[in-house]
Amino acid sequence: MKNGKVIVVGNEKGGTGKSTLAMHLIVWFLRHGKSVSSVDLDGRQGTLSHYIQNRVAYSETHGISLGLPEHLSVSVRDYATTEERETDEKTFSGTIEQLRRENDIVIIDTPGSDGALFRTAHETADILISPINDSLLDLDVLAKVEPESLTVKAPGRYAQTVWRARQKRAAEHRPQMQWFVVRNRVMHVATRNEKVMWKLLTALGGRIGFTPLAGLGERIIYRELFLKGLTLLDLGGKNGAAKLSAAHLAARQELRGILAALGEDVSPLTNPQNDLKKQG
Ligand SMILES: Nc1ncnc2c1ncn2[C@@H]1O[C@H](COP(=O)(O)OP(=O)(O)OP(=O)(O)O)[C@@H](O)[C@H]1O
Ligand SMILES: [Mg+2]
Questions:
Q1: Domain CATH number, residue 76
Q2: For atom 16 of ligand 1, which residue has the closest CA?
Q3: What is the average pLDDT across 4-24?
Q4: Per-residue confidence (pLDDT) for residue 245, from 0 to 100
Q5: Which atom of ligand 1 is nearest to the CA of 225?
Q6: CA 15 to ligand 2 centroid distance, Å
Q7: What residues contact residue 91 under an 8 Å CB cut-off, 6+ apart?
Q8: Range of the domain at 37
């Protein structure tokens, strides 16, 4: 029996790159020889599930084997009664616990808004990664900020969700989650906004208990990678799906930065598992 790590990618904001980051984490762990289970809690939109389907299709069309997680798509029911909701929450927690016992890593991708099972998912997290767009507007779910002095007035809606999840874990004597807020889709020009964001995130992180991290820069390649079901990690090498450019290498470095902060060994692999291989 394993004692896997649950990594939840979540934020109450849409389009911050949650599913893209989740897929990159999945492939990173697969290539490091870990057994990975992925859960798409945004079953209705199904971005992560589509990403994985695109990966299967690419692998079949090009005759190459690509590492795949054991994937589960969860769709929540509409208009559930309180009783049904509680049953669904219990079933979901039980499923995650079981996946954790069977895998090294469980990665849960969540929708960009609160809803059924959103909070339950957060309670299961050993590690929570919250990508935010690089804008003060995106901070409002984390904190209410005084616009003149740019000081933190009060925790925001999502920070409260995380706080409740932590309380629940504490009440059940479970180890506390680590929370990372990742500045994602950052433009590659230094701006005043950049300095202000770091200052605010550092102050807020100290107050509500997260570590701010630099994330993946804004790059056009992610959309193309999604359509092919590939990640930056699948490019390059002898049988790579495409050549690696300097920009791709820089992007990989950004991903390594996130994984290093999670405590993973990011030294280059000599013998990556599930590398792109021609089949047959
Ligand atoms: N670092 C990035 N640079 C440029 N485009 C990106 C980046 N990350 C994600 N994208 C693109 O932005 C769009 C939204 O990304 P993604 O689906 O990962 O976000 P999300 O937070 O999961 O969204 P949702 O809240 O709708 O689930 C996609 O088209 C994706 O390819
Ligand atoms: Mg998504």
A1: 3.40.50.300
A2: 17
A3: 96
A4: 85
A5: 31
A6: 7
A7: none
A8: 5-278
